Amino acid sequence: MSCENNMTRYSHILPHTEKDVNADTLWVWCYPSVSAELREVLLSKCCLRQDSRGLHTFVFGQFRRTWYYISTVEVQEPTALKKVTHFSIVVTTKDFNPEKYAAFSRVLCRMYIKHGSPVKMMEGYIAVLTKGVCQSDENGSFLIKDYDVRKAYLAGSVKDVVSQFGMETIILYTALMLKKRIVVHHPQVEALLEFTRALPALTWHRKDWSILHPYVHLTDSELENLRTCTGYVAGFVDPEVSNRSDLFDVYVNLPDSEITISQSAKEAMSMGKLHKDIGLVIVQSAENADRTDGQIIKDISIKTREILANLASLAEECENSKITLETLKQRHFPPATENFLFHLAAAEQLLKI
User: Fold this and answer.
1) In which residue ranges of the chain is pLDDT below 70?
2) Quick one: pLDDT at residue 24?
3) pLDDT of res. 138
4) Exposed, middle or buried: residue 8 (CB in 10 Å: 0-12, 13-18, 19+)?
5) Cβ neighbours of residue 73 under 8 Å, at least 6 residues apart?
């Protein structure tokens, strides 16, 4: 697919908000229109309603299958922006690629500071839409072809995850394999974004970052959105989420490096020798200083594919290529392995219902 088509498919909305000298936050301009529900979500994320000490220069997240990327700038005088102290530019898309849209937003922000008008931003937007490139000596350049999606998938650090949680990483791996609900808490949104974006790489065979909801507030609309998902990785800054056991199967307290399995998920998440073997593969690979994140992901993926190949082989022997509990029992697997394979077959749609 060409760069031009990529942009046509993915970039839909270019709203921006401003905070003026009276501390009023205004939704200034938007192309094209955006629903009232999404607008409220975006305003809650852009941080202009909060104290300036809590400014986040770049955040991203997902709401109802739309990715949003928000860059916020504090205006340093003198500029063309009179009485504006801060502004945020939001790009909403259908693809996950934080680095791509952070770079694009930086160019747009420079244009807005220089000219004080959304017209120049629209010209840059249309240039990317039609040519896949936005070039300017004074405002920087942006080329879509520089931002491959695989780079975005690999930008999170699995090595850092394993460094923090060691053998307990197997809990995260198991939850992801079984399409369970993982909630992560950290009071700093930057730490949430960095940690949560790495987790889908543990199940590289799916290459599914749609499960990622890295920045969620405890509002009705956002929680309703989460409940429509089979499994997810959701990040929260509000510590109150620890009391919302209805939202998670696995809870990660990131500041304290603690992982908790909810009572309702303990049966499906019971661990045995197979889990220990997988955990050792993960830890030994991550502890090897010479191995990159990409190599660690590959090591984990090889082990995963081995498990999935065995599962597929079992399915082939069954009626309609669907596994039953009886099929697993006939193999006399250890109880924890049988349990894991049963739930994994369900997650991979290989289970006879």
Assistant:
1) 1-28, 48-54, 137-139
2) 58
3) 67
4) middle
5) 57, 86, 87, 88, 89, 109, 113
